[in-house]
Every structure is written in C-alpha cells, then in structure tokens.
Amino acid sequence: MSVYVVGHKIPDSDSICGAIALTYLRNQIGEDSIAARLGELSPETAFILDKFGFDAPELKLSYAGEEVYIVDHSELTQAPDDIAEATIVGIVDHHKLGDLTTSTPLECWIRPVGCSNTIIKMMYDFYNVAIPKEIAGIMMCAILSDTVIFKSPTCTTADIRCVEALAEIADVQDFKALGMDMFIVKSAVQGTPVRELVMRDFKDFNMNGKKVGIGQLEVIDLAVFDDLKADLETDIAALKAEGERHSVLLLLTDIMKEGSELLVSSDDVSLIEQAYAKPLVDGKVWLDGVLSRKKQIVPPLQQVFS
Q1: How many domains is the chain built from?
Q2: 3-state secondary structure of 159
Q3: Residue 189 lies in a domain
Q4: Which residues are in the DHHA2 domain (predicted)?
C-alpha cells in the first residue's frame, strides 16, 4: 500500500514542495509514496511549481485507513480531519512538537531550523540519494520563502547552506533575486477576495483548550493593504465567530521594513497585549522586528494562554 505524503491544511510552499521532494526520496529508497495536499495552492506556490515544471500534488482530504507521512507540522488542528483513522508512519517538521499521537512507532525528523525542506535535504544526504535539478529548485524556493530570504529569526546556518547547495544543483545563479520574485508574487493582493487573503497562510492552534487562528501575509510594502485593511479587520472578526475561535490574529508582514502590523479580533484583547507587551490601538499594533509566526508570535501567545 502506498503512503500518502501530505502537509498541513491551507498548505504553504514548504508543505507542498516538501511533500513532492519527500515523495521522490521515499520512492527512491523503495518506500512507495504519493504526494498529496489538503488545500489549494497559494499564488507563490503556484509560481514555484510552474517555474520548475511541476503539477500540484493530488488533492486528497480523507485518509481513513491510509498510511500517512506528515510534513511541516505535528498539530491535530492542521492535520486531515480523519487523521485518527489513519496510520502515521512518519513526521518531518521544524515547528514545536504538537499534539498528534500514534498507536505504532514512527519515523521522526524534527529539527529547529527555518524550513522542513532543509530537513528533507538532510534526509537526501543521509540516504545518499541525488536530488534532481527541478526538485532542488522547489526545495530551495521553499526555504527562501520560510526564512524570508534569510531575514527571519528562524533562519539557521543549515538553511543557508542548504539553499546554496540546492541552488547549485538547480543551476540558479541568483537565488536571492528569485526569492524577491516570489515575494513580489505574494504582494499582488489587489483584486483578491478578502477571505482568500486572510486564509492564504492561516493556521489554527489549540492553546490550552482555546482555538486560536493566526494568519500571515508577507509583502514587500504594507501600502498594498491601505485600501484593504478595514475589510481585513471585518473579515477576521467574522472568521472568529464562524469557527468558534477565541481569537484570530492576522500578521501583515513587511519584509523590507522587517516588522509586522498585527490585526486582532479576540474575546480577551488583554491576553494579546500581555503576550507582546504592547497595547493595541483600534485592534492593531506594530511589532518591530517580528517576521516569524512560529518563533515570535506563537510562543508568547501560548505562554499567556497557559
């Protein structure tokens, strides 16, 4: 029986490119695998796959009775809805250890690096499997995306070295220029439905029994949101009510200024203010130097919820 390799709900580039790259590796070592996804591609991910000649992985939402290898998370809220009826055979991730549990032993590759594809590169090295040019390209792009072209505090020496090695394999001469092209694609928000923007890179977290949704939009200039911000605020309030969430946060991240404006809808705004030690004004606050949801937003929020 084939193993499905799949990332999280509302998949980002790391989740999609990681599923493709890990599937190829597993097939090369004799582990029959199929790449899958839990949602539609973001514009950035579509750009990456098109550039290197890949189709999107199979859209598959149900995994009951299947064997599954999880990529880029270990959270129950981000997994397939019927994951409890599947057998998890492995996890590759760069986030905190979540609440997925298994009834059988599994393979785990979890490292404190900036991107799951950095770990997958380590797996290729471990198994001594050559990385095809096109797969090296999408892996490189995923790392550039997750590390914000090395600006994110999550970025490590391992991420940088992997990008350099993958760029050589992919024959990409200027990977930072390609990274900027990716973020230009991310910054093209005009004409996109507001709910689609809010959900473009959105994850739910269980924080001491409270459901908290956190989205992030990374652009090269926050001015693109000038005419959209009021609608974004209205929509996160609606999303909070629809999903019975305690809070919904939306990070509007300016990668050039290296900071984020945080939009908040919450049952208890004081918890958000306590987490980041800054008062909100009209449900908003600027967080200088904040680029990473994983490292700079989630941990302090979980601490105040606990």
Answers
A1: 2
A2: helix
A3: no
A4: 179-305
Q: Within the chain, what is the greatest distance between any pair of CA atoms? A: 56
Task: Report, as an integer, the average pLDDT of 49-59.
Answer: 98
Shared domain check, 229 and 133: no
Rounded to the nearest integer, the mean pLDDT of the chain is: 96
Q: Which domain holds residue 242?
A: 194-305
Given 184, 203, 225, which residue is the final one in a domain?
A: 184
Query: Do 149 and 264 reside in the same domain of the chain?
Result: no
DSSP per residue, 176-197: HHHHHHHHHHHH--TTS-HHHH
Instruction: Give the type of residue at 255.
Output: I
- Over residues 91-134, the pLDDT tens digits come to 999 999 999 999 899 999 999 999 999 999 999 999 999 999 99
- Scan for tokens 């009826």, then name that residue: 85
Q: 164 and 247 in one domain?
A: no
Q: What is the pLDDT of residues 186-219, one digit of tens each?
A: 999 989 999 999 999 999 999 999 999 999 999 9
* Backbone phi and psi for residue 247, each to the nearest 5 degrees, phi listed first: -150, 150
Are both 180 and 206 inside the same structural domain?
A: no
Is pLDDT above 90 for 1? Answer: no
Residues 148, 212 share a domain: no
Torsion sign over Cα 292, 217, 260, 232: negative
- Tens of pLDDT along 265-276? 999 999 999 999
pLDDT at 190: 87
Residue 271 DSSP label: H
Burial class (CB in 10 A: 0-12, 13-18, 19+), 298: buried
Of the candidates 244, 247, 256, the one whose C-alpha atom is nearest the C-alpha of residue 291 is 256
